[in-house]
Protein 1
Amino acid sequence: MTKAHFGMIGLGTMGRNFLLNIAEHGISGVGYDLDAAKRQLLLDEGKGMPLDVGSDLGDFLAKLESPRNIMLLVPAGPIVDKVIADLVPHLDEDDLIIDGGNSHFTDTDRRIAELDAKGIGFMGIGVSGGEEGARHGASIMPGGKREHYDRIEATLQAVAAKVDGEPCVAYMGSGSAGHFVKMVHNGIEYAMMQLISEVYDHLRQVVEMPAGEIADVFAKWDRGELDSFLIEITATVLRKKDRGTGRHLVDEILDTAGQKGTGKWTSQAAMDLGIPVPTIDSAVSMRQISSQNKLRGQIAARFDVDLTHHHSSLDLDDIEHALTAAFVISYAQGLSLLAAASAEFDYNLDLAKIARIWRGGCIIRSKMLTDIAAAFSSNSGHETLLLDAVLARKVEHGAIGIRKMVSSAVGHGVPAMCFASVLSYFDAFRSQRLPANLIQAQRDYFGAHTYQRIDKEGTFHTDDWEA
Ligand code: 6PG
């Protein structure tokens, strides 16, 4: 039998579907998983496709053509290192390991260096789109050596989602560029999901709309400027009825959001690079608050009095425009972070290309990414998307809506941390003068940290603040 072109270790939902997608495109694949049932499932689902499995690691490796391309879709963290350690003694020079999980970018840099010393290639690639994307077209963000990317480009192009015939995959850059871009993708995903959930909360608590009607609102918005995967699935999940109770399933779900860490990593990296991403930070904080439900119960009981003040005239058009502007600002924060990371880590990222491959297959895909890609392609040299004419107009259009939304949320006591952060981010960046002059004065007072003046050049210290 001829040897397989592409190997996959980890035949869980993502690995199995990604390999089925590859094989469906006529590219031969071989899979391996410690769990025999998962190996069998791949064979069952891949009947008639150029697919095989390895009965053990040795058999798997023997079934791969040389030099080998071996993708790992296993949980990020120590398991990736364990699989690499198991593989390495059996690999040959020029074999390539491709980590398709959500690994931390610093782990990816470490693995690249460790394996490079042994003559083995390593790439970190971001794969977005969940089960559906893995099976029928994902957005793929590969990073590592260019020659390694060239080796697997045709395979990745085959399995990527297509927008207007263009595959949603492109070489991101060297080292951990692919995993960094995927991490920021997830940070933006956190922000968009939290913004959507704040709108849902507002419509539920303030407007007192039942879930089914809220679904209709999101479905309508999905046909307009907010056309995006997350708005679309929001309408779908809000409509779903619970078989047992007959009520809307969403109303039966515990309000505690899980997280695997990619949103938090985005905030951490942004802190390290000095790039403000407050909407992503707020989304992470809200997931953390959501998970402290016992404490929330105690605090809610302690403050069980009416502390609200209702005074807003907010309509659905305001909310639609507010959400559109908030999405633009979330993308702007993430992409500013990518620009800084590109400079710091020499990734040489092409932000227009990233926006283009995010248009299909991934969780944050949306119609407005076409405008975002155009903003970067125009070479206007703007430091932020907020200065692009088209996107600035969207923000302008939604600014009053955000203000109304936040004041309504504040008045009604409905949390809107992400909307508030969007507004403060926007207001702060459009302020000619911020009150940081006072902070400088305080720092100089207690620590002689010095300050600069607006009326003359130089560095100043005042040693008699109390005089
Ligand atoms: C994607 C998703 C995917 C996954 C996240 C969820 O792009 O397909 O981002 O990677 O859904 O890991 O992350 P949390 O568990 O942290 O929400």
Protein 2
Amino acid sequence: MSAASTPAPSLSNGSALPGHVAIIMDGNGRWARQRKLPRIEGHRRGVETVRAIIDATRELGIRYLTLYAFSVENWNRPQEEVGALMGLLEYFLKRETKTLVKNRVRLLTIGRTHELPAVVRTQLEAAIQATAKFTDHTLVLALNYGARTEVVDAARAYAAALAAGREKLNDGSWATFRRYLYTADIPDPDLVIRTSGETRVSNFLLLQGAYAEFVFSPVLWPDFTKADLAAACAEFARRERRYGLTSEQLKPIPAASK
Ligand code: FPP
């Protein structure tokens, strides 16, 4: 089975660790407001959490981590905040690429990254190239990402492939269509976490998260720790993933009746 294909239904999660954790990092603004600091301070602290959670993910043995760092809607925030977020991204990439290489973490992106400022694109390309050969751990940054935009981009690419005769209309399978998503080479998330107590999906991995388990943590992103991540994974392990089947269908068949 390729890494990107839909997993077969599992009987239960048992002590299973999610192979792919995707996080909606929320609460930076509120963290700053609680301390009477500018919102940007919250984002700055959020970057420190990003570094800590990348390490924690690796230490816990989770192979894929996707972070929702900038949505297509985030451009509509005050210009000063957008500029600060782009600056933080550039700073993070400059500072962190060496650490990603040292820890053998591959960097990938999803989203319309060609619309990011040139200076950020340059840093991204350098980091992606420097880490391209690593296979054990992957960090995916969702940048200028929106699930609806992704569907539009995928449909456009799929239509072009149909017109060019590279795909056949009567195929029409999900396995084929998913190859046109930004996540073509990335397995679907098993666990999606949103911090800060908000219980929305906000245009994040709407298709890929079809069978994900969701955990909503009350902790604001700047305060989110390895222990909070481990707690979300423990919650994941208690869930039964049914993929549309019944609980009974998932029960292991007793050895005697086999
Ligand atoms: C949501 O909090 C957070 C964001 C829109 C940006 C997340 C960005 C970072 C953590 C830093 C940059 C990322 C990387 C990968 C270097 P919010 O501002 O909506 O918080 P609020 O809901 O409390 O206002």
Protein 3
Amino acid sequence: MAATEPSSPAIPRHLAIIMDGNGRWAERRHRPRIIGHRAGARAVNVCIDFCILKGIQALTLFAFSSENWGRPESEVGALMKLFMNALEREVDELDRRNVRIRFIGQRERFTPAIVARMASAELQTASNTGLQLSIAASYGGRWDITQAAHALAADVAAGQLRLEDIDEDAMANRMTLADVPAPDLFIRTGGEMRISNFLLWQMAYTELWFTEALWPELDAATLQRALDHYGSRERRFGLTGAQVAPIQESSE
Ligand code: FPP
């Protein structure tokens, strides 16, 4: 694997991805859906390699939504086994590559064995300074906003925070990923053009890119197309083009 390429303004600091299309990839091959998820796990490695190569600081992957618990029991069970195996297999190598791993979502819904694995992966990689890899598991954007509101309300009830001090910054500081820049670029594979309760708060100004490619088909060329699209965007954050031009020039 080549070292990190020199950074350029077209490189997002934080990439957020909905990995969609595993089931269809398998169905097209007349194989069980879990085969698609296994192929999806391989695509996760392609994606991590690409992010490290490009010097992307943070990658957040939507692995399992709050709603995915409603899938057939056999698929949920197989996915849990896959997560367990992936954790067992990949963590040492990711640690060696200076990747910091964390999980966001309602982890109390997982079995104690998976929760313990998640905690151990986080502990093992906690001081790593390379790619910040967040796995959204049993995650929903509405849950994230609700837990932040709950935390602030608890502080107010305990007399540690005044009601008038609740503002956007206070909320942002209680969201998951508060210490990571908001996603600059969102990618969804699998052809659907929606954000499906992913990082609702954090993606207010994120550039969106969709592809028909199914997640297991992911390759570096597809990811590069997303980066090229990102590089062509003028990010205005609610300002005018004339206002942001000097800001963008000064960051080059
Ligand atoms: C969505 O495709 C994908 C999932 C619900 C699971 C994602 C899991 C992986 C990529 C595998 C391993 C991940 C990690 C982090 C180890 P879908 O099943 O909804 O596909 P479909 O829309 O074609 O049915």
